[in-house]
Write a structure and sequence with these properties.
The protein has helices at residues 11-14, 41-51, 65-75, 87-99, 115-122, 140-150, 170-181, 235-244, 252-261, 265-286, 310-319, 344-359, and strands at residues 28-30, 82-85, 105-110, 126-131, 154-158, 186-190, 211-216, 229-232, 291-293, 300-305, 322-327, 336-340. The protein is an alpha/beta fold. The protein folds into two domains: 11-39 and 266-359, Alpha-Beta Complex (Aspartate Aminotransferase, domain 1), CATH 3.90.1150.10; 41-264, Type I PLP-dependent aspartate aminotransferase-like (Major domain) (Aspartate Aminotransferase, domain 2, 3-Layer(aba) Sandwich). The strands form two sheets. The chain has a seven-stranded mixed beta sheet with strand order 2-8-7-6-5-3-4, sandwiched between helices. Strands 1-11-12-10-9 form a five-stranded mixed beta sheet. The model is unreliable at 366-370 (pLDDT under 50).
Length: 370
């Protein structure tokens, strides 16, 4: 055999780190913003009967017509204004493939969802970075100014924002859409946690406006294991996205799951209300501990321990079999942790463990390098 020369990845890929969240065997897993509830039993029974009738030997409907029709009905739009994909991450990737790429830029406002920059690097799109204020809010005048100066092809707004839980001002979003329309930019409003909030950018959707709204089945629909997301957008945008997505990308099972899930909207809304109430209870409890916590309109809360370093508290929680997300080294959330709202018992377990972790005498040797 001749000498083997290993193929080299692109420089941008070689320099990247893969996106991941720890998947550890713990009693209470509150680190990835999943629903703490399984789908309703009736939904699971309905899926069981549907599965046996699926045509597994045939390719799925490339247009996902039934699912798009069901989603269109839920949002009061036409099926031609709906794009479906394998989780909202594929929705975002498709937007980059259609409107990003070499010589084009995406604007993000950090701290925010890391996948915006990650997918930008994968697709060769430049990343322009705006900042949030000390309370993790967008400052409207600053946002409009930097977009007017930079004129990015894509502008990503995460609302409620991950990992901070903050909402973007509706007036600012509308002004940003109007500004983007003057030079050919696209405003992407990621509402992965939109059902937990009071308002939505979906009211801005129009055929002559460059704004799209992305959603997912992973959170409120309790279907993180399915990987199903969608986008509501002008028809011309949906047409562009269908050009860049792979053929038959959405399998027959996902399409069936999505259609059936939408029949359980009442149950979803009840669970959302329960989690919102729990969010309020957990927020109130955090107010009595040695932490700084920020108001959230999502199904999680960002907080910063004040009595001990955040990394040490994260480990102390893990030692008590409670897993939260570590954001202590992320720019803009230094020292912070994020907890997903779980069931009443899971939240109680977290609060008890956090109280103990904050009171725990620090092990000086363990804190070296923290």
């Amino acid at each position: 055999m001749s000498k083997f020369v290993r193929p080299a990845s692109r420089e941008a890929v070689a320099a990247m780190e893969s996106y991941h969240a720890p998947q550890l065997d713990v009693a209470v897993r509150l680190n990835t913003n999943e629903s703490p509830f399984a789908p309703p039993q009736a939904f699971r029974e309905a899926m069981g009967s549907v599965v046996t009738g699926l045509q597994w030997h045939r390719y799925p409907d490339r247009q996902a017509a039934d699912l798009r029709t069901a989603l269109a009905s839920a949002h009061g739009v036409s099926p031609e204004e709906v794009f479906v994909a394998n989780g909202s991450n594929e929705v975002l990737q498709s937007l980059y493939l259609a409107y990003g790429g070499p010589g084009r830029n995406a604007m993000v406002f950090e701290p925010t969802f890391a996948m915006y920059a990650q997918i930008a690097h994968i697709t060769g799109t430049g990343v322009l970075r705006g900042a949030r204020d000390s309370e993790h809010r967008l400052v409207p005048n600053d946002v409009l100014k930097i977009v007017e100066e930079q004129k990015p092809e894509l502008i990503f707004l995460c609302s409620p924002n991950n990992p901070t839980g903050t909402m973007d001002p509706a007036e600012m979003v509308a002004g940003l859409v109007d500004l983007a329309a003057t030079y050919g930019g696209m405003v992407v409003v990621d509402e992965a946690y939109g059902q937990f909030a009071k308002t939505s950018a979906a009211d801005l959707l129009a055929e002559n406006l460059p704004v799209v709204v992305s959603r997912t089945f992973s959170k409120t629909w309790a279907l993180a294991g399915i990987r199903l997301g969608y986008l509501v957008a002008p028809t011309w945008c949906v047409n562009d996205l269908e050009k860049v997505v792979l053929p038959y990308h959405l399998d027959v099972f996902k399409q069936a799951v999505g259609v059936i899930a939408l029949q359980y909207e009442r149950e979803m809304e009840e669970r959302v209300a329960e989690l919102v109430a729990e969010r309020g209870r957990v927020a109130a409890a955090l107010g009595g501990l040695a932490v700084t916590a920020w108001p959230s309109e999502a199904n999680f809360i960002l907080f910063r321990p004040e009595a001990r370093p955040g990394a040490a508290v994260w480990q102390a929680l893990l030692d008590r079999s409670v897993l939260v997300r570590d954001f202590t080294t992320m720019a803009g959330t230094e020292g912070c942790l994020r907890v997903t709202i779980g069931t009443v018992s899971e939240n109680n377990r977290f609060l008890e463990a956090l109280d103990e972790a904050l009171r725990e005498e620090p092990d000086e040797s363990a804190l070296e390098g923290v």
